[in-house]
Amino acid sequence: MKQERILFVTGRLAEFSLRGVLDKLAPQVGFEFEVVVLNVQVAALMHVPLILRRLTVPPDTDWVMLPGLCKGDLQTLTDHFGIPFKRGPKDHFDLPEYFGQADRPPKDLSRFDIEILAEINHAPFLTDEEILRQADHYRDNGADLIDVGCVPGDSWSRTGEIVKMLIDAGHRISIDSFERTEVEAAVASGAELILSCNHANLDWVSKLGVEVVAIPDVPSDFESLHAIVEELTKQGTPFRIDPILEPIGYGFAASLERYYRARKEFPDTEIMMGIGNLTELTEVDTAGMNVLLAALCQELKIHSVLATEVINWARSTIGEFNHARRLVKYAIDNQTLPKHVEYQLVMLRDPKLKELGSEALANLAAQIRDPNYRIFAEENALHVMNRDGYWKGTDPFELFDQFQAANQKDLDASHAFYLGYEMSKAMTALTLGKQYKQDQPLNWGFLTQAETSALERRRGQGEDTQCGPR
């Protein structure tokens, strides 16, 4: 039996990943396909007049699928070409669902090629236990190397001892200091990288036999970096370079230009970027910044970053960059947008909201015959319902008073606590644009904390397990 042949129309950005989806989907569903790319960047910008002007339909095409956001009357196209035109889903990654193949294979995000150096800031001020705990935390969240950060202007006598302690605990170590006794003690104890090297310490740091990070004498003096690189090369000292990322308001854009210049003028040299000057010194959530920084590093072949988690808003930077480096590696390797790959860095809001709608909520409320409370958060309101009524509003305290008045005997202390907790989660979901599902944790990406549901708690306490959320 001849399989139907479908023509998929798309834009330039989506072509590669669309073909990848169709290569797997077509054999499963049983159709043949051809992809045509119109001269537009984004498929969602297509409209019927443009398609009429530019599209040529190959022979033997049974029907044509257009992007879901394509504008205009498709009957015009059907009449003109003599075959059916249909809109597909808004996103081509939803084509498996469209064709009844909802399961998508997980993306392989195991690959990355950007090393994370995680700095223990002001290590001399910490106890040994705090240093080990911080190093283990960084490693657990994706750090490849632990950077021991010393205090400028001081000389710490325990540098070598601390480096040995960390290495004995299984960590790879770099030392961040310009003080000679600290650096020499760290290297003697096994540190494999020195941050940093310029003309202030070039004469002695280049003779220690380990890799150094070469930096300009001052960030704006790029030419000094050339002189330092020349001397390190002459002495056979292994090195990577860091042109220095500057904070916003202090030469940020110019510093980005220096990284582009560094890659152009040192095409085969390893480069490092210290990202803390942006994440620590910009009062904003850091996940988005880390993705952009990882993308910049990936495209410029910058294979290491130095990060830290000092200020509270940057407290998950190491984990964020770990996810970001994998995401951008996947996107660039597969020539696809970093979208619909994984949602671990979509933390404040959720990727998509699934709502029942007014009619379905009213219908559900009319059918409930038990005292268990159902809570929903949608249409900019909280919705609470059981057999005694259906209450909705934006103030959890007012709602609580309303459904408590309907049946006061139904609310003991533990039950009231549960409902208050769930309404608090629901209100958070409404405020931030997150999906709320009763008895389940809100989704905070890779920071999501597991919860034991009320049903599981009742089972553990030997209570009636037939009822859902009260």
TrEMBL record:
Pfam families membership: DUF6513 (PF20123)
Q: Which GO BP terms apply?
A: pteridine-containing compound metabolic process
State what protein this is by name. Answer: Pterin binding enzyme
Where would one find coiled-coil regions in this protein? none
The superkingdom listed in its UniProt entry is Bacteria
Q: Which residues form the signal peptide?
A: none
Organism, by scientific name, is: Gimesia algae
- Domain Pterin-binding spans what residues? 96-329
